[in-house]
Recover the amino acids of this structure.
């Protein structure tokens, strides 16, 4: 039940109800149930464990009143900027652009973390919270309890919880699927396999480990540990990410087992948010080796399943240069399979990634357009293509120009893939 307490400088509202489904809209939307502290200078949001999840400045120095900071489960701060709406939406499919504090492949975005008002909130939110607790001394007990618990969740405690999450999953999720944007990257990571099949030369996130599966018992133990770690805030999650880099290669039985465990134990389909979502990565070979039985089952299990496949290029010279050990014939076959799945299953979208870079062989973009343009007589609503710049931390007008040209020509939804960790 919502409860409010305040004085002339501070208003505390417990258990505010945000939207109950993810939506794409040009003003800031908050999801699930959370608590809010509003002062003259800032708005702070807390999840159902009283851990900070969001902060917005209210001083004149804050960049824009509609922009905000998100605190992630991995203990990162992400700054969401509107970037002039139209450009950001066209490029990413979302109205707000996540600006990250670590090196990434974004070719658009600014440097919000250099702004003193942003830096102040990320550095001093907990001190501000302690001062607020002092200022509302004598608040009624639910508010007093909330403040005690929120203050107890210090930056040090949040670091420990992030480390615990990485420990449960067997390592940090270094790259989330691009489709996780549909749920604002609020995904619970469940590792069912580690490593990948190819070990491509160009890839920065690969591990040296050979591809290996988790056992059913290990998966159940992970799900139970995740439930404990997410604690009361599990009620604000309706999405799971089956990791690591090629969960589709784990095979239908293990995928369905993990999916059912997460629905049942984590209660994804009984959360404060409507529906349930499954995300995973796949590869050309794992896709071509997967029969229709898995897709039939996933189509029934989740409201939406998103499978993201790294195709990278339809040009052999480019694949060879990238050190991706697959043939163009297989890429084309995978592309046809993707179209067939997207056509057949209303609750499944298979998306694909292609590389962008200024120094790729001349055949890369023409071969890309042969797939995403010439194979279709009209625009398609499903089967999103993500273009992933190879360069790190180099915003580039030329690349943005090239992206826009490809997007206009593509007959599939086409967006930039900004690499983001959990
Ligand atoms: S691009 Fe994908 S398949 Fe290739 S090494 Fe990286 S994770 Fe593995």
């Amino acid at each position: 039940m919502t409860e409010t307490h305040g004085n002339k400088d501070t208003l505390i509202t417990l258990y505010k109800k945000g939207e109950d489904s993810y939506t794409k809209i040009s003003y800031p939307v908050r999801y699930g149930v959370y608590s809010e502290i509003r002062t003259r200078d800032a708005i702070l949001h807390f999840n159902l464990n009283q851990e900070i999840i969001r902060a917005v400045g209210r001083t004149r120095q804050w960049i824009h009143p509609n922009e905000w900071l998100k605190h992630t489960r991995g203990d990162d701060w992400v700054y969401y900027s509107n970037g002039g709406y139209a450009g950001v939406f066209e490029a990413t499919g979302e109205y707000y652009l996540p600006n990250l504090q670590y090196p990434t492949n974004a070719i658009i975005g600014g440097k919000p973390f250099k702004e003193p008002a942003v830096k102040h909130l990320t550095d001093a939110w907990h001190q501000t919270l302690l001062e607020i607790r002092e200022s509302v001394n004598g608040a009624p007990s639910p508010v007093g309890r909330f403040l005690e618990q929120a203050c107890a969740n210090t930056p040090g405690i949040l670091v420990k919880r992030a480390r615990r999450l990485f420990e449960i999953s067997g390592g940090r999720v270094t790259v989330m699927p691009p489709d996780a944007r549909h749920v604002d990257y609020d995904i619970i990571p469940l590792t069912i396999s580690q490593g990948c099949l190819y070990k491509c030369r160009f890839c920065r996130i690969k591990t040296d480990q050979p591809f290996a599966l988790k056992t059913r018992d290990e998966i159940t133990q992970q799900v139970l540990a995740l439930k404990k770690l997410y604690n009361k805030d599990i009620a604000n999650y309706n999405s799971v990410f089956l990791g690591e880099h090629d969960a589709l290669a784990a095979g239908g039985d293990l995928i369905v087992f993990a999916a059912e465990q997460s629905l049942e134990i984590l209660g994804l389909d009984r959360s404060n948010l409507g529906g349930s979502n499954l995300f995973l990565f796949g590869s050309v070979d794992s896709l071509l080796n997967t029969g229709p039985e898995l897709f039939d089952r996933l189509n029934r299990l989740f409201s939406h399943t998103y499978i993201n496949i790294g195709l990278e290029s339809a040009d052999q010279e480019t694949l060879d240069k990238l050190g991706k050990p697959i043939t163009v014939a297989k890429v084309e076959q995978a592309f046809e399979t993707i179209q067939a799945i997207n056509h057949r299953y209303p609750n499944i979208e298979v998306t694909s990634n292609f590389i962008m870079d200024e120094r790729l062989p001349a055949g890369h973009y023409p071969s890309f357009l042969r797939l995403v343009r010439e194979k279709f007589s009209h625009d398609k609503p499903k089967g999103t293509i993500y273009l992933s710049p190879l360069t790190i931390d180099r915003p580039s007008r030329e690349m943005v120009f090239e992206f826009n040209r490809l997007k206009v020509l593509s007959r599939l939804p086409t967006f930039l893939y900004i690499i983001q960790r959990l």
